[in-house]
Amino acid sequence: xxxxxxxxxxxxxxxxxxxxxxxxxxxxxxxxxxxxxxxxxxxxxxxxxxxxxxxxxxxxxxxxxxxxxxxxxxxxxxxxxxxxxxxxxxxxxxxxxxxxxxxxxxxxxxxxxxxxxxxxxxxxxxxxxxxxxxxxxxxxxxxxxxxxxxxxxxxxxxxxxxxxxxxxxxxxxxxxxxxxxxxxxxxxxxxxxxxxxxxxxxxxxxxxxxxxxxxxxxxxxxxxxxxxxxxxxxxxxxxxxxxxxxxxxxxxxxxxxxxxxxxxxxxxxxxxxxxxxxxxxxxxxxxxxxxxxxxxxxxxxxxxxxxxxxxxxxxxxxxxxxxxxxxxxxxxx
Length: 333
Prior knowledge:
- The chain has strands at residues 2-6, 11-14, 34-37, 42-55, 68-72, 75-79, 89-92, 97-100, 111-115, 118-124, 130-136, 141-144, 157-160, 165-168, 178-181, 186-188, 200-203, 208-211, 219-222, 227-230, 241-246, 249-253, 270-273, 278-280, 292-293, 304-306, 318-332.
- It is mainly β.
- The protein has 2 domains: 2-50 and 324-332, no CATH class; 57-316, Kelch-type beta propeller (Neuraminidase, 6 Propeller).
- The strands form 6 sheets. Strands 1, 2, 3, 4, 25, 26 and 27 form a 7-stranded antiparallel sheet that branches. The protein has a 4-stranded antiparallel sheet with strand order 5-6-7-8, with no helix packed on it. The chain has a 4-stranded antiparallel sheet with strand order 9-10-11-12, with no helix packed on it.
- The N and C termini lie close together (12 Å).
């Protein structure tokens, strides 16, 4: 039996004739796995990862909150918002924001999905509430099929792509109502177990995690047809941002603590979801709520938050999230 020891002192054993590591290139594999790095001939161990927020470019419209966004921290699009209600759209290249063609219907409290060249702007409000949806092709917004919900279809948590999206947790009561988009029409699907409003949704139309909303810490996992209650958030809040790739990979950040709509109770908290539990990680540099957050194409390793409102006033600030695993070389004993 061969034994390998990493530089931190952890001993790892391989049984003869059995492969017990994940093969790949540097940085591949999940946390805790061992793999062979073909570029340097070493076995490497994927250690605990760390994440942090950094300051990005300032938006051209620097008083934008309760807005939506899509994409990653190097290729993003942000749209809508208020102070006052606007339809302005901006794209981001990882350094600077550029103003481009506006939404056909100015609104705030809207949902977003997709990537920088292929996004959706979903519903909105606050008065009148809109159930219309617009599709972005990288240049222009085009009206597409409306959601089925009549009225008050604003403030929805959303995730997914331009052709496969999900909305839930509308501000209208609150609600547990959920709809799914297939690229041409919306279909009502399974309701959430807990009604709430203004929560965050991370993932895709077939695999998502939803957390927070109003005064709750409830979290629910979506498998494409039904919601299941899972471990709760550590901090209850609403109008928070959310980004992630599936119901095992999510990140939520910012928001208002229960009963608040701004002021000193705005939160900087960031929590990471691994499919089992939420863990407090690095806080936003500035507490904010109602910012646009990266959606599909933006996993919990490369998201951003744009705009939002600080405890004192709306801002055009951008913060970018990056995450990396600690890679250690495994040496023989």
